[in-house]
Write a sequence for this structure.
């Protein structure tokens, strides 16, 4: 890099994407992918805390065996809204729409995404969907469960399913547009010399994610339309009264909603693949395998959906095949875990906050993935279907995996995004709190589920022996809540009081670190030309670095 | 060095007024737009795919009932509509050709004719819907499909409940297709406006091309809907 | 699309091709319409779908210019989307086809 140390005063005067324009309209009408990423960041954080609020009420209700805090109907709405908000309005857009939006153009060396206006449109669609969802929740909510199975959702519930369906449909459109932008950007906008085999693995992960968003989301979109029309216009498509098949709904629903899990986890894998080489000062082990395993996960992810339906009445033979295929999807995931650990091997490991989250991700994702194999096995699946075992499993993937990756990425790239350093001590503490809180919340749920506690029960007074584990879980949720609040507080704090970050505080590889922090509006002052492989940490560390990495 | 690239960029801007700032050259911009539309059409395949999936399963389950219900739709209207759409596809491809070869009058007239074909399609579709409404074939409380014989099975009558599934799918599939037609008309209105303003040149006519891709895709969907919905079991 | 006037590709007028494809499509529409009234047993559906697929392919190849597309990426997108559509249809229908076994 040409400019080793930048004097803070110059930094203050330099034009960045943050200080180029001011005022609300410069944000609401921006087409800058970095600003849109921040718009997304604010909105998904808002929905994260709404979803978290519902989670808190659920855990409070389960503190005691009796159904004493809320009524049964309210409880149904709580877990439904928790699921819908967290899945469709936080997890799906979480990493792609914030970190992905911010980093994909920079990592490939482009000035912006291929379609900046469509990018902004996607945020507006998300907001419209979000407002409809908020309106739906404030005026009664939905109680179908986030999976809105028919015929309950289409014919029986007297809550506002159609409104929630419209909200999810619109949010899904926003997700499709994000994926479309990424695919075209990665194909068309790479800088000279940025070949496919030089792309950061974060990009490969986002490419795979986009495939799922593009090919999966439309199916759930049309499914929502069908159910909503069945409910509102009295069509009969899944209605068993007419000879329709509710299991068909489940096929269509899970065709998207299983791969949707990979929409959440693949970007987190991409984040971790950036963090681990940086904090081990090593090239990633097995670049091609990590890259292709992302694509393999995206494809295999579409072959396993019916393992959600083993007890729904699908054919035995079909169940056998889907069980086998579900095992198959573990292969590319295992390849990734293997390559991450192999990268750590003999590395000069530093325990900065992003790396702590990456470690957390590794462990929790592995537990989540392995418990997924339990569920892929037909016998165990039948035993633990609709118990807290399933709840614990997917929270290990979605929260232990995806949210850990998200927080790790936020810490890793925060200096680039804001131009400020976050307080490292607080960040490590928060990472620790999140890890402890998470395990305290969800590990007891594995046990609960295995012992037979069903999910979605608000009252377990006929099985009071489950209370101890539930109390542990609720206590853990409180700790987890604190762990999630902390980063928000110190990130906000650092925007004003944090030390200015150098262009590359981690001495990391990757084009995004070769531009200023925060970057200028068009990302690079001159178009980058790439002549090196990704993760060239051996080359980066080869000459003695004049610049000392300092982190508060 | 930076100055010369700056000059280069300025020259690019003068040469190509439609070039957006973040693209290096017009070719990259054109290729990106085209790829974007193709990828979007890929998502559209899956969007309709969900309905095709439901359709195929129920058609297999309730073949006779579906045959009887299908026979109640006017196949001649359906065939006419297919022809209308094929003609509109021709005019679209002619419009693209006109844009490529700087024939502005032809471009404008082809866009107008395409839209007229699109409106004709929707008109015929509306007539079909009206007939179904008159015959109480619209699913819901007033639905009635009694004593309709199953084709090729003398003495057997269609189950009205299964027929209702057919009509539900019929209205969903054709309805969402018609919605795409309406969106296509909107796109073509914009293209027409841009063409009248003289925005398109042989160097820059990407909107016509990708708008055309969309229109052709909607045509392809109809090419499948026609035999699947209208021609299940036509012989007496 | 790859075709642009700048490349000089459009010198040879493609109009003949366009009208030829258009006429073929109309003929095929008429054929599929008439064949539906013949008694072919299960082959009615087969014929209808084969003709529809030919028509769709014609539109894609010539009207949507896939045939002349300079790069394979367009084809890849189409093949990928169709592949995933077949996954959806195939694996779902595999369930329905095997439910009555045993």
């Amino acid at each position: 890099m040409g400019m080793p140390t930048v004097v803070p005063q110059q930094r203050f005067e330099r034009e960045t994407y943050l200080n180029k324009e001011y005022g609300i309209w410069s944000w609401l009408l921006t087409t800058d992918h970095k600003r849109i990423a921040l718009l997304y960041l604010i909105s998904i954080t808002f929905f994260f805390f709404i979803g978290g609020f519902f989670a808190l009420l659920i855990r409070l209700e389960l503190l005691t065996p009796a159904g004493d805090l809320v009524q049964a109907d309210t409880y149904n709405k709580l877990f439904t809204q928790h699921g819908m908000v967290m899945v469709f309005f936080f997890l799906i857009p979480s990493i792609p729409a914030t970190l992905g939006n911010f980093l994909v153009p920079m990592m490939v060396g482009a000035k912006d995404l291929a379609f900046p206006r469509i990018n902004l449109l996607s945020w507006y669609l998300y907001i419209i969907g979000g407002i409809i969802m908020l309106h739906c929740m404030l005026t009664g909510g939905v109680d179908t469960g986030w999976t809105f199975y028919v015929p309950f959702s289409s014919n029986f519930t007297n809550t506002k399913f159609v409104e929630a369906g419209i909200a999810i449909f619109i949010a899904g459109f926003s997700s499709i547009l994000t994926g479309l932008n990424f695919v075209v950007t990665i194909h068309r906008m790479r800088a000279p010399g940025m070949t496919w085999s030089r792309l950061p693995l974060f990009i490969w992960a986002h490419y795979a994610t986009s495939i799922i968003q593009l090919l999966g989301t439309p199916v759930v979109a049309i499914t929502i339309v069908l159910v909503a029309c069945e409910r509102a216009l009295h069509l009969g498509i899944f209605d068993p009264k007419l000879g329709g098949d509710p299991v068909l709904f489940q096929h269509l629903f899970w065709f998207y909603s299983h791969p949707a899990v990979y929409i959440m986890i693949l970007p987190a894998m991409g984040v971790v693949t950036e963090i681990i080489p940086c904090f081990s000062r090593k090239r990633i082990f097995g670049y091609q395998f990590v890259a292709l395993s992302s694509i393999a996960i995206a494809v295999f992810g579409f072959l396993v959906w019916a393992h959600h339906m083993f007890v729904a009445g699908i054919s035995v033979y079909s169940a056998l095949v889907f069980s086998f295929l579900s095992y198959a999807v573990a292969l590319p995931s295992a390849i990734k875990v293997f390559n991450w650990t192999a990268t750590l091997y003999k590395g000069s490991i530093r325990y900065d906050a992003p790396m702590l989250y990456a470690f957390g991700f590794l462990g929790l994702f592995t537990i989540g993935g392995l418990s997924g194999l339990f569920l892929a096995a037909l016998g165990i699946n039948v035993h633990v279907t609709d118990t807290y075992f399933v709840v614990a499993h997917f929270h290990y993937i979605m929260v232990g995996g995806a949210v850990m990756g998200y927080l790790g990425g936020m810490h890793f790239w925060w200096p680039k995004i804001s131009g400020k350093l976050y307080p490292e001590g607080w960040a490590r503490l928060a990472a620790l709190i999140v890890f402890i809180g998470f395990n305290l919340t969800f590990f007891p749920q594995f046990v609960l589920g295995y012992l037979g506690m069903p999910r979605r029960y608000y009252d377990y007074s006929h099985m009071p022996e489950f209370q101890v584990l539930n109390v542990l879980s609720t206590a853990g949720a409180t700790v987890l809540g604190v762990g999630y609040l902390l980063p928000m507080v110190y990130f906000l704090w650092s925007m004003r009081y944090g030390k200015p970050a150098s262009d590359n505080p981690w001495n990391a590889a990757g084009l995004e670190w070769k531009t200023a922090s925060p970057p200028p509006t068009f990302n690079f002052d001159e178009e980058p030309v790439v002549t090196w492989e990704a993760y060239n940490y051996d080359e980066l560390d080869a000459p003695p670095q004049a610049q000392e990495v300092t982190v508060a | 060095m930076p100055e010369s690239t700056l000059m280069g960029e300025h020259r690019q801007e003068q040469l190509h007024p439609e070039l957006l700032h973040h693209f290096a050259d017009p070719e990259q911009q054109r290729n990106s737009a085209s790829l974007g539309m193709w990828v979007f059409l890929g998502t559209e395949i899956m969007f309709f795919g969900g309905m095709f999936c439901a359709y195929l399963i129920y058609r297999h389950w309730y073949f006779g009932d579906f045959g009887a219900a299908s026979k109640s739709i006017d196949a001649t209207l359906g065939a006419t509509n297919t022809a209308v759409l094929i003609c509109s596809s021709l005019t679209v491809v002619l419009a693209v050709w006109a844009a490529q070869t700087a024939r502005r009058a032809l471009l404008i007239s082809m866009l107008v004719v395409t839209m007229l074909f699109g409106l004709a399609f929707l008109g015929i579709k509306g007539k079909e819907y009206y007939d179904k409404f008159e015959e109480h074939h619209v699913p819901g409380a007033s639905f009635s499909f009694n004593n309709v014989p199953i084709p090729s099975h003398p003495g057997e009558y269609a189950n009205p409940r299964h027929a209702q599934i057919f009509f539900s799918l019929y209205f969903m599939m054709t309805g969402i297709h018609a919605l795409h037609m309406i969106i296509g008309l909107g796109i073509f209105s914009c293209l027409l406006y841009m063409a009248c303003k003289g925005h398109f040149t042989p160097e820059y006519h990407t909107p016509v091309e990708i708008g055309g891709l969309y229109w052709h895709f909607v045509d392809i969907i109809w090419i499948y809907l026609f035999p699947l919905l209208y021609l299940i079991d036509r012989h007496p | 699309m790859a075709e642009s006037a700048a490349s000089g590709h459009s010198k040879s007028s493609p109009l003949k091709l366009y009208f030829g494809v258009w006429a073929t499509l109309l003929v095929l529409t008429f054929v599929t319409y008439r064949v539906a009234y013949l008694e072919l047993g299960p082959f009615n559906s087969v014929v209808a779908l084969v003709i529809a697929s030919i028509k769709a392919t014609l539109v894609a190849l010539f009207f949507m210019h896939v045939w002349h597309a300079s790069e394979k990426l367009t084809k890849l997108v189409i093949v990928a989307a169709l592949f995933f559509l077949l996954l959806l249809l195939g694996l779902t229908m595999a369930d329905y086809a095997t439910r009555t076994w045993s």
